[in-house]
Amino acid sequence: MPPKPSEAIVTTSLRRTVNTKFLDGLVATARARADEPALIHKHRGVWVSRRWRDVLAEIDRLAAGLRSLGLAPGDLVAVDGEITARLFLTAAAVLASGGRILAVPISASAEELDRVLQDPAVALVLGQGRETVAEWSAATTKQRRVPIIFDHATPDSRPPDEGMVTLDNLRGLGAPLGWAEGLATTPPDGVEEILWTEETTDWREGLDVLLTDWISEGVPLALPELLAAAARDRAEIGPGRWIASIDRIERVAGTIRERLPERTSATGRLVAGALGGSRTPWAVGLSALLRKRIGLARLTGVEVYGPPGRDPSLEARQLFLQLGVPLSSRGQRDFGNRPADAPQLGNLATGGAVS
Predict the structure, then answer these.
(1) Class of residue 162 by CB neighbours under 10 A (exposed 0-12, middle 13-18, buried 19+)
(2) CB count in 10 Å sphere of residue 263
(3) Residue 194: inside a domain, yes or no?
(4) Across the chain, which distance is largest between two alpha carbons, in Å?
């Protein structure tokens, strides 16, 4: 029996030139779960659920655009911004094309951006927002010209400068290879547990972790429309699992504590009793209400990633335990995205340099 179109493409069109481990996993998951939800996100305030066949076709279009800009197997793509649905799928296209992701902190200085571009392995930049793009543009002017892809609305979808391309235009630059062609219909088995994350590229390995787990587990991933609206979106989605960096979970814990009423008030005393484990009916009901409003009602736990020897703060662990959600530490992974002799990029959220 001849291979299906997508299978033939994966085994013949790319295998000769790239390590297709990620692409093979992506296509296999899409084939097994073609019509099940893969990615859940908001578009202009409305929740959108995209199937595995849809995200595979979108990644195929984005990968074609990346290749047309010169991305070759082994190249690095510097990624800078909040992990939105568009940035996430473009990062997936980088890996599917054989490229590698270099996450750059959103607060990186001009000097640090210069050092990134000194690395000859960096072939493209993926930025987000007008200010970020302007900073990268200045860096490429001082160093070497590297194409910049940016996720920002402009009049008529026109890039503001030479050497730049919008994500919308990237989708149409090249010819897709047809990775989603020939996928059979797969009726959904039932409601899947939703995986949640709310991160930026401050988490150095975040995109690699999320993309790897996403395709290996085949679970629907939900992302906030904007990081500033993460608490609202998390409460609306009510995820069952959450993958987070230590820095993010500590910030969320701090925000939750800041929004709790003062202990000296009557409401504050009630909340303190509920968090303290009181089993009275009012305390149980109040605890359930808190969990729902924070978006933890269905959550079984948070998988927290960080460098060896570092765990979330005691305050964060205690708060989430009081809310009935344990934090489980996961070790930092090494995805080998940086050659040993590459320039160092300091001031990372992890507190170290990329090695």
Answers:
(1) exposed
(2) 10
(3) no
(4) 74
Cβ atoms of 319 and 249 within 8 Å: the answer is: no
pLDDT tens digits for range 213-233: 999 999 999 999 999 999 999
Q: Which residues contact 92 (CB under 8 A, 6 or more apart)?
A: 26, 55, 59, 62, 211
DSSP 93-130: HHHHTT-EEEE--TT--HHHHHHHHHSTTEEEEEEESH
Assign 61 a pLDDT band (cuts: 50, 70, 90): very high
Contact in structure between 295 and 234 (CB atoms under 8 Å): yes
Cα dihedral 59, 63, 64, 68 in deg (nearest 10): 150
Residue 98 lies in a domain: yes
Residue 276 has a pLDDT of: 65
User: CA-to-CA distance for 127 and 148, rounded, in angstroms?
Assistant: 7
Residue 215 contacts residue 20 (beta carbons within 8 Å): no
Q: Name the pLDDT band for 67 (thresholds 50, 70, 90).
A: very high
The pLDDT, as a whole number, for residue 336 is 55
- Could you identify the residue written with the tokens 């008030």? 265
CATH of the domain at 159: 3.40.50.12780
Report how far residue 125's alpha carbon sits from residue 265's, in angstroms, rounded to the nearest whole number: 51
Nearby residues of 140 by Cβ (< 8 Å), 6 or more positions away: 117, 125, 146, 148, 163
Q: What is the pLDDT of residue 17?
A: 44
Q: How many domains does the chain have?
A: 1
Burial of 96 (0-12, 13-18, 19+ CB in 10 A): buried
Q: How confident is the model at residue 290 (pLDDT cuts 50, 70, 90)?
A: confident
Residue 191: which pLDDT band, with cuts at 50, 70 and 90?
low
35 within a domain of the structure (yes/no): yes
Per-residue pLDDT, 47: 94
Per-residue pLDDT reduced to its tens digit, 320-332:
888 888 898 876 6
Quote the CA–CA distance of 242 and 222 in Å, as a whole number: 10
Position 321 in a domain? no
